[in-house]
């Protein structure tokens, strides 16, 4: 009986460590070829992970904060359209089976594959030029996203959305890794851990991102 119990505990511990390692891999920014900025005069407004599963009731953010950020994103989108600047959205869905199991057990399925809340929050008034689905924190992990930027000669990204410590951070760092000019629209970013988000902003600034306040 003791051997069976110890084996079960070891298996559970191994599963937890595997899940933690997997989540770390999902958060890691990607690298890619450096772009020629002189050949990419275009800019785009990039809105990350503003999906109903995460911005609605029970999504983990204060409702007033969500409303304020959505209002600011709508303002940025309106300004972008006025300057003939495309608005791009990237949404997140977890692909790994074990992550989806945990989400269904512990988070009521929010963010899991097949969830009805994977669509954009309906309060967004963006009318996007392109929409992409990713399965890691970094938007550049979706090949279609990077291909679209290449095809439209985009060299500058203004980034808003959620979460500052995951999708925003990873995407901004991945863009910097490739030589993009990056602006973080900080007031238009949701973050669950504000002290950590302030630290991430300082780190991104040191690496070359512009932080707009």
Automatic annotation (TrEMBL):
Coiled coil: none annotated. Keywords: Hydrolase. SUPFAM superfamilies: Isochorismatase-like hydrolases (SSF52499). One of its GO terms (molecular function) is hydrolase activity. The keyword Cell membrane does not apply. It holds the Pfam family Isochorismatase. Residues 44-211 form the Isochorismatase-like domain. This is Nicotinamidase-related amidase. It comes from Hoeflea marina.
């Amino acid at each position: 009986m003791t051997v069976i119990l110890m084996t079960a505990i070891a298996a559970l511990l191994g599963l937890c460590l595997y899940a933690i390692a997997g989540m770390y891999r999902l958060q890691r920014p990607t690298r890619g070829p450096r772009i020629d900025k002189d050949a990419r005069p275009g800019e785009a407004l990039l809105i990350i992970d503003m999906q109903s599963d995460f911005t609605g009731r029970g999504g983990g953010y204060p409702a007033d904060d969500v409303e304020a950020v959505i209002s600011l994103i709508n303002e940025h989108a309106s300004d972008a359209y006025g300057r003939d600047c495309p608005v791009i959205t990237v949404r997140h869905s977890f692909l790994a089976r074990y992550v989806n199991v945990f989400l269904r057990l512990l988070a009521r399925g929010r963010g899991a594959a097949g969830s009805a809340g994977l669509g954009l929050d309906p309060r967004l008034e963006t009318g996007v030029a392109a929409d992409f689905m990713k399965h890691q924190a970094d938007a550049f992990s979706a090949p279609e996203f990077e291909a679209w930027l290449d095809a439209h000669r985009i060299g500058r990204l203004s980034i808003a959305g959620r979460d500052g410590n995951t999708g925003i951070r990873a995407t901004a760092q991945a863009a910097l890794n490739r030589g993009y000019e990056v602006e973080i629209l900080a007031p238009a970013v949701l973050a669950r851990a504000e002290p950590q988000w302030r630290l991430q902003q300082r780190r991104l600034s040191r690496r070359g991102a512009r932080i707009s306040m």
